[in-house]
Design brief:
Helix content is 17%, strand content 44%. It is of the alpha+beta class and 368 residues long.
């Protein structure tokens, strides 16, 4: 392998695949990345055996070739180079990196020792959509995803692909978020629809490495999922399990509905949250139809309350919520106002945006 490439292009490729590099004392090859040069394309690949990321960059390929090298050392070299033009060459099981003023020899490992990067078959069944649309929907739900070894099915994001809608759902059993992408924003050729649980880390890395406003193709096959753009691929195992029947807990009606400014409500929750007890609870009190009170106290700190103008319909009530979870709910919906739907008897509360059915957030109150 022999090539000439710009430093910025190298850094982009390395930064993209870096988060998929594995750390395994029993399998040190996972600390390497695969470098393949062919037809003026340079492909970097990394894997931790659960997920793999591949990034394609461009350069001048003098000789095709493939090798693997330690990611951390190569990334550190490229990040600290001053010269823009970098020469890379393989020779006698080494990778030679040279510029006008720098030279390094990095020990490489044959590519046949590197784990095979899964390839999903080029089937007709796929989903295509704009990356910005997909990333916006993922951002709205991942805050509610759980991390559980005992219940791996909640440690990810549920993707439901139907002909008329794509749903993304996440829950940690205390709260739940759903975002919807409507029909005119995607193409879905799965004849029977598709349902898959994507690991949380995979969705987070897809957010990080996929650029805005480009076409993303999603393929699902044999327990694996692939996110593919013109120059980036993220492939991952799916979570094997049954996602909770979440629709059964989404409130169909509420006893009390509060229409309030989103930013002011979020600020009040954050402010009163500084006085919360060990269970991080704030109390929402409704005494009349024109204002809502947010209150918190701690025996060792004191107490505080915040009164916010609001339009309220329904019965007076008082409920306690985890203030961080409540604040997260305000971030999942768009618009200047939010609707907070409350139910007595410790039933789930609902947060949504007026006139917007594309997303909602469900939160369980704290039992008092």
């Amino acid at each position: 392998m022999k090539l000439v490439v710009l430093r910025n292009n190298l850094k982009t490729g390395l930064d993209t695949v870096g988060r998929a590099v594995g750390a395994n004392l029993n399998l040190p090859i996972l600390g390497n990345i695969l470098v393949k040069a062919e037809s003026n394309q340079i492909r970097f690949s990394a894997t931790n055996l659960e997920m793999a990321i591949t990034k394609t960059i461009y350069g001048k390929i003098i000789e095709d070739g493939v090798t693997t090298v330690p990611y951390s050392v190569l990334s550190n070299i490229i990040s600290n180079l001053v010269s823009e033009r970098v020469n890379i060459e393989t020779k006698h099981n080494n990778l030679l990196i040279t510029t006008d003023s720098y030279e390094a020899t990095l020990q490489s490992t044959p590519d046949n020792e590197f784990p095979i990067i899964p390839k999903l078959k080029e089937s007709k069944e796929l989903i295509k959509l704009n990356s910005t649309t997909l990333k916006d929907a993922i951002n709205k739900v991942i805050v509610a995803a759980g991390i559980s070894d005992l219940r791996p099915e909640i440690s990810g994001v549920l993707l439901i692909g139907e002909q008329s809608v794509i749903k993304l759902v996440a829950t940690d059993s205390f709260r739940l978020a759903e975002a919807r992408i409507v029909k005119n924003q995607f193409t879905n050729t799965f004849e029977q629809g598709v349902k898959a649980i994507i690991p949380l880390k995979t969705t987070q890395e897809a957010l990080r490495v996929i650029k805005d406003d480009e076409e993303v193709t999603i393929r699902i096959d044999n327990g694996q999922i692939l996110f593919q753009t013109s120059d980036t691929e993220v492939v991952s195992r799916l979570i094997d399990g049954k996602f909770p029947d979440y629709e059964a807990i989404v409130p169909k009606s509420v006893d009390t509905e509060i229409l309030v400014g989103r930013d002011e409500f979020a600020g009040a929750v954050k402010l009163t949250g500084s006085f919360t007890s060990k269970v991080s609870d704030v109390r929402i009190k409704i005494k009349d139809k024109k204002a809502v009170e947010i209150y918190s106290s701690d025996i060792s700190l004191g107490e505080n309350n915040y009164l916010i103008p609001a339009k309220i319909t329904g019965e007076p009530m008082e409920l306690a919520f985890n203030w961080r979870y409540l604040l997260d709910g305000t971030k999942t919906v768009a618009g200047k106002q939010i609707i907070l739907g409350l139910n007595n008897n410790n039933k789930p509360a609902l947060i949504k945006s007026p006139g917007d059915t594309s997303c909602f957030y469900v939160l369980m109150p704290i039992r008092q």
